[in-house]
C-alpha cells in the first residue's frame, strides 16, 4: 500500500507533535512530506532530521539561515515566511494537509491546499470561524474533503458514519467548563494567566487553553460545527460535561442520541482524520468505567462566560462578524497572556469590536483580510487604552 504523504502545518505545536507520534507509530501507512513552524527552529530541525520531509517552512524569516544550514545538507528544501507557508502545500508529493497552525494564520494555506485538491485534516478551527462559508464552498467546488481533528467535531463525524441518509435533528457539543467552571464574575475579575492555563483535562497550546477558560473555545466550535455539518444555529447545543469523556453527541429525527466516548487524548481524533475511513490499531490508554463512576452534565453559564453568547450572536449575524470576534479574541488573549488585560476584559474587548467594526453581509476573501486587519487595529488600540 502506498504511504499517505502528510504536510503537517504547525508541527512544533501541541497537535503537531502528537500528529508526529501517530505518524511514527504507523510507518507503513504515513510519511511526512512537509513540516512547518513559526519560531521554534530548534524543534523543527530536530523533527526534520528524524522524519526527513521534502520541504520545511520556518515562518519567522530571521531564523531561515539557521534552518537552512542544518537541513540543506540533508537535501531538504528550506523556505521561510508566510507566502512560502501558503504555497508549500501545493506540491505534488503531498496527499493530505493537516492544518495545526494556531489562529487566522491557518486561513490562507488552507485555501491554497483546497485549490490544489489536497484533502484537509482540520485542527485549525479558526479557519472555519473566520471564513466558513467561503472555505466550505471552495472545498465543494474542488471536491476536497475536510476531516475534522477537533475532538468534538471528530466525535460528531464518527457518529455520522453510516447515517448519510438520516437528517440530523441537532448536535450537542460537550464543554469541560474549563478551570473556572462554577465561578462568579467577582472571582473571575482577579484570576491570573497561571490559573487560566491549567485546563482540567487537556494539555494544549496556550491560546486554545485560554479560549477554553473563557468558553470562547466552545463558541468557536459552535461556528466550526455549523460549517462542517451544514447546520442551522438552533440545531447546535452546548452542554457542560466536566469529565471530557463524552466528546459530543448527535440527535437524529427519531430522538436517538449517538455519542463518541474515550479518554481525553487528541492522538485518537488526529489518527482518525489521517486514516479515515479506517480505524488503525493504537495502544492509546483505554477508558475504564470503574474509574469514572459518574459522568455529569450541566447548563453552560452564558452570562458569566459571555464569550459563548457572543459567538452565538456572531453566528446569527453572519457575514464578517465571526471574523471580527476571532481577530478581537486573538488580540485579547495575547494581551491577557502578556498580563495587559484582565480575564473579564477579554469578552468586553470582543463585544466592543463586534459593535464597532463595519458589518459586511457577504464577504469576499479581500473583505476578510480587511476585517481582520481593521479589528486587530481597533483591538490593539483598546488594549493600549487599558494599560
Ligand atoms: N492542542 C489541542 O489539543 C487542540 C488544538 N486545536 C486547534 O489546533 C490548532 C493548533 O493548536 P495547538 O497545537 O494547541 O497550538 P500550539 O500553539 O501548540 O501550536 C501552534 C503551531 O503553529 C505554529 N504557529 C504559531 N503561530 C503561527 C503563525 N502566525 N504562522 C504560522 N505558524 C504559526 C507554531 O509554531 P512555533 O512552535 O514555532 O511557535 C506551532 O507549530 C488551533 O487552531 C487549536 O484551536 C483543536 C483541538 C484540540
Ligand atoms: C481537545 C479539544 O478538542 C479542545 O477543543 C477541548 O475540547 C477543549 O476543552 P473545552 O471543552 O474546555 O473547551
Ligand atoms: Mn475541541
TrEMBL record:
Keywords: Isomerase, Isoprene biosynthesis, Magnesium, Manganese, Metal-binding, NADP, Oxidoreductase. The gene is dxr. It comes from the Bacteria. Pathway: Isoprenoid biosynthesis; isopentenyl diphosphate biosynthesis via DXP pathway; isopentenyl diphosphate from 1-deoxy-D-xylulose 5-phosphate: step 1/6. Residues 6-132 form the 1-deoxy-D-xylulose 5-phosphate reductoisomerase N-terminal domain. Residues 146-229 form the 1-deoxy-D-xylulose 5-phosphate reductoisomerase C-terminal domain. The keyword Manganese applies. It catalyses: 2-C-methyl-D-erythritol 4-phosphate + NADP(+) = 1-deoxy-D-xylulose 5-phosphate + NADPH + H(+). Its cofactor is Mg(2+); Mn(2+). Residues 261-377 form the DXP reductoisomerase C-terminal domain. It is an enzyme of class 1 (oxidoreductase). Signal peptide: none annotated. This is 1-deoxy-D-xylulose 5-phosphate reductoisomerase. NADPH binds at residues 12-15, 40, 124, 126, 205. It holds the Pfam family DXP_redisom_C. PANTHER family: 1-DEOXY-D-XYLULOSE 5-PHOSPHATE REDUCTOISOMERASE, 1-DEOXY-D-XYLULOSE 5-PHOSPHATE REDUCTOISOMERASE, CHLOROPLASTIC. GO terms for molecular function: 1-deoxy-D-xylulose-5-phosphate reductoisomerase activity; isomerase activity; manganese ion binding; NADPH binding. 1-deoxy-D-xylulose 5-phosphate binds at residues 125, 151-152, 176, 199, 212, 217-218, 221.
